[in-house]
Model the fold of this input.
Amino acid sequence: MLPIFGPTRGGKSQLVDELVAAYPSQLVDGVRRQPLVRVKVLGRPTRRSLSEAVLMALNTRRYGRASADELMSRVCDLLRVVGTRVLLFEEMQQFVEGMSAKATREASDWLKIMAEELGITLILVGLPITSEIFLRNEQLRDRAERVQEIRPYNWNDPLQQGEFQQALNALLEAYLEAGWLLPVAQDPELLARVYGSCLGRVGMLFKLFVAVEHLARKHVLDFALLARAHEEAIQTDFLQFNPFDKSRTLTHNLLVESYVRVLTEAHMSIPKVRQAEVVA
Done:
């Protein structure tokens, strides 16, 4: 049982998409095989709703009059038939948000039973608050691996800042190959200003550039276009102004403070911050 937690737009969905693409459903000798099943947890989970969610993920009809135990048995039978080895659950914070400790324990017992009954791996993906589930169900906690956190790139860490630069460079190279002009590419402030927009979150970085493509009238990436894309795509106020406004100065300290706000909102631990310095 592998828990993977991280903030909104932090890159969890991209990771899940890659896993699903790596283990697609296939027909083998006329029989469908689905080694990995992706399940989205909707609303407050119960033993019944979780079984129904798996049936939906398997594109199989549900049984309205069946009991919760009958549905679970049906799910187990189907997962054996299609050869599932991994059940991946998204939006796991639903097990905690608005749920009593008793309700969380009862719903999470379903996960424990499924893993033991089928001998399969469960991947649990959600916001950091999901870790509360292990306080409410110690048996689930004892069966789980160490929580893997997907954290935003830390501007205060030179190594992570360099990794963020590599991610941005990869995007810019893709735009160049697609025939775009990139007058911003040579600007020494570009990295800091893009970071100020997404604050190290991979999902927000992609969202920013999706907006760039949507808004562009010509294939020219400049700060005016990035400013418009930020206004449309980034609906947060961790940074109090548009980072692509060249009249505003971005300091190292300001970027680190905004990064800390992201972590605080996500209930994630704050790394030790070294002495701030002005970088732009």
